[in-house]
Amino acid sequence: MARRKGKMQEEVLEVLRRHDQPQTAYALLAEMRADHPLLAPTTIYRALDALMERGAIHRLESLKAFVIRRHEDQGDACLMAICDECGAVEERLAPRLIDDVSAEAAKSGFAPTRHVIEVHGRCAGCEPGDTAR
Amino acid sequence: MARRKGKMQEEVLEVLRRHDQPQTAYALLAEMRADHPLLAPTTIYRALDALMERGAIHRLESLKAFVIRRHEDQGDACLMAICDECGAVEERLAPRLIDDVSAEAAKSGFAPTRHVIEVHGRCAGCEPGDTAR
DNA sequence: TCTCTTGTGTTACTTTATAACATCACAGTA
DNA sequence: TACTGTGATGTTATAAAGTAACACAAGAGA
Description:
Two copies of one chain form a homodimer.
Chain A lengths: L6 H11 L7 H8 L8 H13 L3 E4 L4 E4 L9 E6 L5 E5 L1 H12 L4 E12 L11
Parallel strand pairs in A: 3-5
Antiparallel strand pairs in A: 1-2, 3-4
Helix pairs in contact in A: 1-3, 2-3
The structure holds a DNA duplex.
């Protein structure tokens, strides 16, 4: 039953790669049931956990959904810009900004370990003000 | 059955005031069932939605939980520092920081409307390095 | 071959959240 | 007083998200 090393992780990654929008665990599950009819949520969540641990994907807390990471090697030091119109997500590296956020939290002696920085709005393509109108 | 204007909202607020840690919707539900044995999730979620809309409470996306807001009048322009040790949450006003986050997102033409900025870590009281050891 | 570790299968369940429709309470007003 | 409109709440049912616990399989190395 267990095929080989991290097969599920790779399959989940591949499905995520086919989408440029974040996918929920259950959307992934539904899609993967084409190949694995008996697939259970547990399996998906385990794969997702492992992928997050190795920095390959990112969980968007405010969407309860997952996306591929463009910058795998940067820890959690990024900002996610989420377009509420088209659903697109832009991962933006901003180490200085994350430092500023940490510094702000640290003012009261807080020691940060993980950052959740998600901005909702409209992406350039969906924003009416600029090119269209 | 419906008592009067926003009664549920006030009751939910009162329960939240009795806790200094964030509460999940179902924790609130359980607590409020002491007074209202037949209370349904729907009712709680409606009250929570209304309270969020008027800025009285804040939803912590990464905890799926809700806290009282200290700074009701500041829109979403705040940073939440969440202690993973004791569960305490500090709401910190940081308009300049939020502006910086917006500016960073705006670099690609993104137009921000809502900010989710949550920092996990250890609060001063739980951090071993400083006073204790 | 043995054994250890890691990943996966399986079953069942908990927690979180929403949809759809009925009903009630208050305000305004006729 | 009765009428009516609106918004909050009640009620029922279900969807969506996530986890626990235990069993088994597949490689890796001894």
